Amino acid sequence: MRHAEFRHHRLVQVYDAECRWGPDDDFFQAVVDETPAARVLDLGCGTGRLTVALAAAGHTVTGVDPAGASLAAARAKPCGERVTWIEGTSALLPQRAFDVAVLTSHVAQFFVDDAEWARTLADLARALGPGGRLVFDARDPADRRWERWNPVDSHRVVRLPAGGEVRAWTTVTGVRDSVVDFTHHYHFDDGAEILSSASLRFRTEAELRESLTTAGFLVDRVYGGWHGEPVGHGDGEFVVLARMGRLAPVF
């Protein structure tokens, strides 16, 4: 199954157990908190780790994701009732409804096709008000993170809150231009095995800047890590902060 960690009920539990709060969440929350009582969009919110935290901090938050199993887990979290959850894509976003939009956990890389990425940025530009901010992360291709996605370097044991363990690892199945195809392997202690395949696009900083400019955004800065490091001297990331530089056309 493609993207099974977001769509399969057993893997959603594994994802939640493995992906705890980290410095990336601290960064995104700090940026959002710069706008008091902000109207926030979390696009690709997954199981809502950051989404519910932003709602608890007093923001008006909308979480959007196409995976129903992930949204079900998000709704069940404390403060989940304070969030407006939408099952779908950026095409459903209302106009001029948000002050800040975030795409976390490398969601931006799931838009492999340039036309799909351009449509998503256009949707975000339409949904943000004048001066609205867009914040997202993407891995720096120069870091070549995919070379560590192998059964040895990526092997880990995930302990589930309800009991039991899951052995997991990742294998790369293809590298073509700037797209990496891979499969996550999950082995449960009851003998079940579930595979999840996906593809990610590794865009350069120049490509990201160009796509944002085309969509009407101004890029304020690009960091290389979660503590404001320069590109190439941080965590192998592009941490992008942009804002609407002009009103996007409304169709």
Q: What does the model show?
A:
- The protein is an alpha/beta fold and 251 residues long.
- 26% of the residues lie in helices and 33% in strands.
- It contains seven helices and eleven strands.
- It has helices spanning 4-7, 9-18, 23-33, 49-56, 68-75, 114-127, 205-214; strands at 39-43, 60-65, 84-87, 98-103, 128-139, 156-159, 165-176, 179-188, 193-201, 217-223, 237-244.
- Strands 3-2-1-4-5-11-10 form a seven-stranded mixed β-sheet, with helices on both faces. Strands 6-7-8-9 form a four-stranded antiparallel β-sheet.
- A hairpin with a 2-residue loop joins strand 7 (165-176) and strand 8 (179-188).
- The two termini are 35 Å apart.
- 39% of the residues are buried.
- Mean pLDDT is 96; it is low at 247-251.
Give descriptors for this structure.
globular; about 250 residues; four-stranded antiparallel sheet; single chain; alpha/beta
Question: Helical content, roughly?
Answer: 25-40%
Alpha carbon gyration radius: 18 Å
Q: Could you report the average pLDDT, rounded to the nearest whole number?
A: 96
How much strand? 25-35%
Structural class computed from helices and strand pairing:
alpha/beta
Write out the strand line-up for the largest beta sheet, numbering strands in chain order: 3-2-1-4-5-11-10
How many strands appear in the DSSP assignment?
11
Q: Return residue spans where pLDDT drops below 50 for at least 5 consecutive residues.
A: 247-251
Major sheet: size, sense and barrel closure?
7 strands, mixed
Separation of the first and last Cα atoms? 35 Å
Count the DSSP helices: 7
Q: Helix and strand string, N-terminal first?
A: HHHEHEHEEHEEEEEHEE
Global geometry: globular
